[in-house]
Fold this sequence. Notes:
By secondary structure, the chain is an all-alpha fold. It has helices spanning 3-13, 16-27, 42-47, 54-85, 89-101, 106-125, 142-152, 157-179, 184-195, 198-206, 218-227. It is globular, with a radius of gyration of 18 Å.
Amino acid sequence: MAAEELKIQKVERGDSSIATYRLFQLISPSLPIGGFTYSQGLEWAVEAGWVKDRAAMVLWLENILRYSVATLELPLIDRFYQAIETRDRQSIEALSNLLCSSRETKELRAEEVQRGKALNVLLKQLDVPVDEYLGSNADPNQLVGLCVAGYLWGISPEAMKQGYLWSWAENLVMAGVKLVPLGQTDGQRALMELTEMFPEMVSISTQLDEVMIGSFTPVVSLASSLHETQYTRLFRS
């Protein structure tokens, strides 16, 4: 598809009355990319007794939010959008490699690639020409697929960040509700506590220098590594 055709497609799909619903679609738990099958180390943290109640779960997730999501995924959303808009495959490859290399365990890297592959298959079935934006020298990842769809569907980077934060929190809180276990009300309280931090996290993401983009969650990495050999597991990570 020519660049002019893609531009027309973006304008047609960029109707603000539709873009918001497309965002809801991308962040919905019913999106068939398997987001609900991952706990990102939380399953081991519960098994080890590190997370025993709602307060401990919120603290665990805040650590990931503050030192990974806000410093890796959110700033990369802005940069993916810029590269997608200019069809800069080299930058898209470099950003994709940075994202995958920042996943510090085998499980977390596999999760990134598996989600990316599943999303790319889905987007192509929905007539989103995701392959035209991806380079051949980088592993698939979920973030670039979301940003391609967001760009073509007229979803702003700011809205995509908000949607990504909600989707991330909802998936992991629901994992915690099953694992700790917690009641549904505690799950809703945890979501409220986490969402109160979101504006600060978005602000942090806009102020990072390039060299500061990355993830530093050693306890999560340890939990993820130990989860690989955990005897009984509900989740893939």
